[in-house]
């Protein structure tokens, strides 16, 4: 009877150890998978943020280029106006010299 009892105790201990090991392995696998999934989500979010930042940067560059073009056009117009004024002044001076 004692030998049978010891045999039963040994079997129960082995079964408990096997169950604990299996549970630990399953938990570790689940944690590893969860970590990988979270890392992938973070990478996707970072990529999306990078894309948004690039698009915003491109928009800002386009706006800056448009502003620069407008400024250049305004400067050209001012230069043309100054040239016209100078030509008119020269014509007036030439006209005054001729009248003398």
Quickly describe the structure.
The protein has one helix spanning 2-99.
- What radius of gyration results from the CA coordinates? 43 Å
Largest sheet: none
- H/E element string? H
Low-confidence stretches: none
Q: What is the end-to-end distance?
A: 147 Å
Structure description:
The protein is mainly α. The protein has a domain of 54 residues. The chain is built from one helix and no strands. The longest helix is centred in the middle third of the chain and has 98 residues. The chain is rod-shaped, with a radius of gyration of 43 Å.
Descriptive labels:
single chain; membrane; about 100 residues; about 0% strand; 1 helix; mainly alpha
Task: Summarize the SSE layout with pairings.
Elements (H helix, E strand, L loop, with lengths): L1 H98 L1
Keywords: Membrane, Transmembrane, Transmembrane helix
């Amino acid at each position: 009877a004692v030998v049978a009892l010891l045999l039963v105790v040994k079997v129960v201990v082995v079964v408990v150890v096997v169950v604990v090991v299996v549970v630990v392995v399953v938990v570790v696998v689940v944690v590893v998978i969860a970590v990988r999934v979270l890392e992938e989500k973070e990478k996707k979010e970072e990529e999306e943020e990078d894309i948004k930042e690039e698009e915003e940067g491109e928009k800002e560059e386009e706006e800056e280029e448009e502003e620069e073009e407008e400024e250049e056009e305004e400067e050209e117009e001012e230069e043309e106006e100054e040239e016209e004024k100078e030509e008119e002044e020269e014509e007036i001076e030439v006209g005054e010299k001729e009248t003398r």
